[in-house]
Design brief:
The chain is of the alpha/beta class and 306 residues long. The protein has 10 helices and 11 strands.
Amino acid sequence: MPIVQTELPTTAEICVAEIEKLTEAYPFCRSEELAVTAFGRPIRTLVIGSGARKVLYSASHHANEWITTPLLLKFCEELAEAIASGGELGGVSGAAVNEAATIYMVPMVNPDGVDLVTGAIEPGSLQYEAAATLAERYPSIPFPEGWKANLLGVDLNLNYPAGWLQAREIKFEQGYTRPGPRDYVGRSPLSQAETRALAGYTEAVDPALVLAYHTQGREIYWQYADMEVPGAQALGEQFAALSGYRLAEVPYESSFAGYKDWFIRFFGRPGYTIEAGAGTNPLPLEQFTEIYRDNLPILLTAALGI
């Protein structure tokens, strides 16, 4: 029976439990606790592979995009099985991936927000009611399904030091001036435990490439400002060809203060935001099989390089 279950929403507790089961079943998989959120939920890593090429994949920066978490967990499980059995994944030898790359993953950057959207935080609880109070300021955003932020009301993918002041100006003009369900940039860059943890981990890993998984739109974003990263467009075009997604320019109003923006700015290496699936967030689990099929070649190619 598979360890990673995709029939039910992946809560923070389920994510941690599945990571623990994966590291127990496959001792060559490793995990550590990066940080604890303001509400006590752990942010854990999951690492597989022993090769020289280091890549870092993240998921669930945004609460209602939690379907990206089982994407990374399932990928790790299937790759681990291929390594252990001497088999293949996506037509690629598990041993070849293991020898070529070390894949660092943070499958759930925003466990507090995910628990709100998935129902793990029950109506009437203090955490739920605190979030509901913040949401009242933005009545046009459905609650809790429209929630993207952490439980402090900060949009984590607008909290990185890469054009943060521009992001603040844009979002304030749009009316997102205080903590709420989405698009509030926080009081300063890296003001949140989650973003500090991921930025610090990225600096420690020093990866050749990052993938930041979001939903939805079936698009791949690869640029930040006017920076020219060698090889980034060519690899992005390969991702697009393999997945059927579109390599796209980031809309101006979403061009700043994201994780991949920060990575490109400070490391000068390829960083990609993958907008998986299509529809209205949160995407239904019925779409998971298609999302996994489309993104498996991206996950493997990013690890191996062109």
